[in-house]
Amino acid sequence: MMEADIITYTFVLNMITIFIFAIIYSLIPVSNFQPLNPKDKLTFIDYLFYSVTIQSSVGLPDITALSDFAKILALIQQLILMSSAFILLKVFYYRK
């Protein structure tokens, strides 16, 4: 039962992290990011897509972080993902 709770909490943590970072990305100045096509205007969906891509670690999407601030935010988000993955691995590999 405890393993299922940890899995659920880890999933919820990751979903909350995705939405929090999407909101943060959308609130900082747009000059921190560059879309693949510079003529495109970034929307919340773009930032949500960026956040999911960072959190799932499948590679960078159509948006590039330009400023150190945006890069640090992405790094923090990736560290949260790595931490949650570590928790899950610890639960499954070190069970008694």
Structure, explained:
The structure is a single chain. The chain is mainly alpha-helical and 96 residues long. It has one domain (2-93): Helix Hairpins, CATH 1.10.287.70. Helices cover 68% and strands 6% of the residues. A two-stranded antiparallel sheet has the order 1-2. Helix 1 (2-27) packs across helix 2, helix 1 runs antiparallel to helix 3 (68-93) and helix 2 (44-56) crosses helix 3 (68-93). The mean pLDDT is 82.
Question: What's the total count of β strands?
Answer: 2
Helicity level, as a percent range? 55-70%
Strand order, largest beta sheet: 1-2
Let me know the largest β-sheet: 2 strands, antiparallel
Question: How is this structure best summarized?
Answer:
With 96 residues, this protein is mainly alpha-helical. The chain has helices at residues 2-27, 44-56, 68-93; strands at residues 33-35, 63-65. It has one domain (2-93): Orthogonal Bundle (Helix Hairpins), CATH 1.10.287.70.
How are the SSEs placed, and which strands pair?
Layout: H1 2-27, E1 33-35, H2 44-56, E2 63-65, H3 68-93
Helix pairs in contact: 1-2, 1-3, 2-3
